[in-house]
Amino acid sequence: MSPDPESVLAKVRDAALGFPSTYEKLSHGSPGFFIEKGKAFAYFWHNHHGDGETVTIVKTSGLEEQQMLIEADPDFYYSPPYLGPSGWIAMRLDGVDLDWDRVADRIATSWEMVAPRRLLEAGGR
């Protein structure tokens, strides 16, 4: 668990809010990141229900990709409660050698999965 969740959240915000039509709002007591019409693409959880984790949660293409990511790096990825059965993936954000480019890339990919074509053309990667 991160000893300074606010600085970690600031980095997640920077990555998530850099795309067109994105906004942040509390969702079940934690920051969530959305595009128009309330489509979620990322969440930030810190010690959610006392789990001792600081994570960001993003969409994947489905359970197959989720499982592949977990198998490839189980210390970094896991299936989060509630959202995991729908294919979302959690990334642990408390590692000493955390690769923030990797985190930002997964957030961007998640945004791309929910953004309509006109937003992708306006400001995707």
TrEMBL record:
Keyword match DNA-binding: yes
InterPro entries: YjbR-like_sf (IPR038056), YjbR/MT2646/Rv2570-like (IPR058532)
Cited Gene3D superfamilies: 3.90.1150.30
Highest taxon in the source lineage: Bacteria
Alphabetized UniProt keyword annotations: DNA-binding
Single annotated GO MF: DNA binding
Record flagged with keyword DNA-binding: yes
One Pfam match: YjbR
SUPFAM superfamilies membership: YjbR-like
Annotated protein name in UniProt: MmcQ/YjbR family DNA-binding protein
